[in-house]
Design brief:
about 280 residues, globular, Immunoglobulin-like, alpha+beta, 5 helices
Amino acid sequence: MRTFHFLPLTLALIVVGCDKLEQPDNYVPVPDCEGNGYGFRRVLIEDMTGFRCIACPQAAEIARDLQNFYCEDVIVTSLHVTSTFAEPINTPPGPFSTDFRTPAGDAFEAQFPPGSLPIGMINRKIFNGTQPMVQRGDWAAAVASMIGAPAQFEVTIDTIIFNSVSQAYDFTIEIPVLQNVTGDHKLAIYLTEDSVVDWQKDSRFTPSDIFPYYHRHVLRTTLGDPFGEQVISGSESAGQTISRNFSLILPANVVSAEHCSVVAYIYRSDNYEIMQVSERHLIE
């Protein structure tokens, strides 16, 4: 297990504090490295963004750097929200023509009003006020406050198998309970897609319209209700394992199955805080 202290707190400053910027190729793969492993808490960054949001690429870079630093312990999902920043303004193949919006993203926007973009949620934990919204400059500190703590749960996504008859991807999710827990908990599942190419506005450049831009970790759909299904009612004892089977048919908005991942997380029903999260590529 690795222990980190002050370095994550500087990442945001490094990203936004440069005086001179070169136009980036923002496709930077996550290093092939390991996190703290089984039984330690991981963090989901839900980056509320939009391709016509001029400051959103800076937030995406902060999320990328945190993921590169913490490896498997940080998982990122980009939620494209608001008609102002996420609604397409052209038909394909014109600039800003991809419709990144989803019914699930709309539901999260309604439940967790972003106010302004970019902004994000870090395990949906409430750090200030009554909503779990965290400004991008505070993401590193929020992540560092939770990474590596003993987890109440583990979440494992079994091997994902493609069924050529049903054209569905079948898999099992298991949730070992590692500590005695109280309160209702739900399991929710995202399908994300990486490296979706379209334009992006970025205030750091003139002109501000950037192409090609690789949109990372894009939320494509959820399995079932966006807010998941209840898997614990009242309490559960350590040593128990919750198991659920799922079958996923790719939605029409997916460009490439090879770039898709399943993200599964368990959270408290009363305050939405995510207690554990895991990610697995759809095709390995």
